[in-house]
Design goal:
CATH class: Mainly Beta
Structural class: mainly beta
Distance between the termini: 35 Å
CATH topology: Metal Binding Protein, Guanine Nucleotide Exchange Factor, Chain A
Oligomer: single chain
Number of helices: 1
Strand order of the largest sheet: 6-7-8-9-4-3-10
Order of helices and strands: EEEHEEEEEEE
Number of domains: 1
CATH architecture: Beta Complex
């Protein structure tokens, strides 16, 4: 019998926003490195690292009022992507797509246990 998944936590750079991943969201469906133009521009780097998780169990535990969102309409799919970030420090926290309303993309660098993070997919 396996033990239940361990809750995971994370935050933005300034620490005003904290989140917790519980239950289904605490175990990623997969980890990805995305090289698409919009992701590169979003993070200002050659790659956006993310954990793709179930949206169920993603909880903002602190600073929800500091969250800001940008509607990215220039996606490859043509469907808008909601990119969520800290309005204070600008940390890129989450992305949500209407193509899969049951999942959340969690910015891997915001995870408290990032040292354990390894990519499964590179796109």
């Amino acid at each position: 019998m396996s033990s239940p998944p361990k809750d995971r936590t994370g935050s933005c750079l300034c620490g005003l926003i904290r989140y917790k991943l519980t239950g289904p969201s605490s175990t990623p469906l997969y980890n990805t490195c995305c090289h698409c133009l919009n992701c590169r521009r979003w993070v200002g780097a050659a790659v956006y690292n993310a954990s793709i998780c179930s949206k169920e169990g993603v909880q903002i535990t602190q600073g929800e009022d500091k969250l800001k969102s940008f509607k990215d309409t220039k996606t490859d799919s043509g469907k808008p992507l909601s990119r969520v970030f800290c309005g204070e420090c600008g940390s890129h926290l989450f992305a949500f797509t209407p193509l899969r309303e049951d999942i959340a993309s969690i910015g891997a660098g915001t995870l408290d246990d990032f040292e354990e993070w390894r990519p499964d997919v590179e796109q």
